[in-house]
Amino acid sequence: MSSGSQGVKSNSGSKLITSAKVRAFLMNDKVSVGLVVAVLGEILFFSLMSPYFMTSTNLINITRAIAVVGVVAVGETIVIISGGFDLSIGATMAASGMTSVYLVNMGVPLWVAFIAALSIGIVIGIINGVVISYAGINPLITTLATLAIVRGLGYIISKGQELPMHNESYLNIGAGKLFGVPYIVIILISMFLIFGFIMRNFRFGRYTYAIGSNAHASKLAGIPVGRWRILFYVTSSFLAAAGGILVVSRVGTAQPSFGQGIELLVITAVILGGTSLNGGKGTLLGTFFGLLLLGILNNGLILLSVPAYWQQVFQGTALLIAVLYDQWRQRT
Q1: DSSP assignment, residue 222?
Q2: Which residue has the higher pLDDT, 329 or 169?
């Protein structure tokens, strides 16, 4: 390649990364006004309908209820912004939780068990990323297959039995508090702040938006798209594995069925938050508001004694509306 063509390539790459960086900053500072209004509307409605809604205990319950979904949603947001999709998050949670409990019950130190459990997530993320990036398999098909494989192995290894957890230090993660704030909520907020900072200030964030906007152009600009996609899926699976540990710390047992259906909640929160299914657009702050919208809705329905199965109806309706809005936004 001539020096002139190299100069053009370098220049175009520079423009692409600069544009992506500006976009990343703008997206991370922008949340749909309609989404904020919807959250405030829910708060007002349920405050009027139930005298227990605005109590400090109930507000803590809301944040605690969305903590696990929120940690997993951080990774899913990154993957979808990059133009991908991850349906294996629920199975990864189950595998991670069961691994950690099994090792702790065998007498392995807690920190070693956590590292092993998180490593399960990293391995699953690498498999997803490699198959999608280098075998060219559709992300939906790849992660759906991973979901089935990991979930099935969990049932085979455990023979469908739950594993109890009695380690107090482990359980304290889900039950303990710091100055009245549950540890699990602190972890949730920390994940959003940490990855929000990374998305705004490092190549990780700029490349997420660039690859999601136009993977081919990113490749021409010199970005190793395949390797970065692997990193995005590793991030998603790593956070899903962390979610599995948090679930165990809350309920005190590990089960191969953990995480079933969490994909619906996570993806609904991400899409409600304004992340585009076509990639290249989204915000972690938006996902956080999407989580609040779902968390407040579920909590309010419980306070109003609405049957639990209606929650799924409302969640599915919210997802459908969010997807329809996303498609309308793309067309216009």
Answers
A1: T
A2: 169
Q: Where are the domains of the chain?
A: 9-331
| H helix count then E strand count, the chain | 14, 4
What is residue 10's predicted lDDT score, i.e. its pLDDT? 43
- Is residue 16 within 8 A of residue 218, CB to CB? The reply is yes
Query: In angstroms, what CA-CA distances link 171 with 224, 251, 287?
Result: 41, 8, 27
Average pLDDT over residues 247-260: 87
Which residues 6+ apart lie within 8 Å of 45 measured at CB? Answer: 300
Instruction: State the Cα–Cα distance between residues 27 and 93, nearest whole angstrom.
Output: 29
Domain 9-331 sits in CATH at 1.10.3470
Total residues found in the chain within this entry = 332
Name the 3-class secondary structure at 322: helix
pLDDT at 318 over 80: no
Q: Which long-range contacts (CB under 8 A, 24 or more apart) does 304-307 make?
A: 304/46, 304/49, 304/50
User: pLDDT (tens digit, 9 = 90+) per residue, 34-72?
Assistant: 788 888 888 999 999 888 888 888 888 898 889 999 999
Q: What is the pLDDT of residues 257-309, one digit of tens each?
A: 887 888 888 988 998 888 888 888 889 999 999 999 889 988 888 888 888 77
Q: Give, rounded to a whole angstrom, the gap between the first and last alpha carbons of the chain.
A: 40
Burial call 121-155: b when 16+ CB within 10 Å, e when fewer: bbbbbebbbbbbbeeeeebeebbbbbbeebbeebe
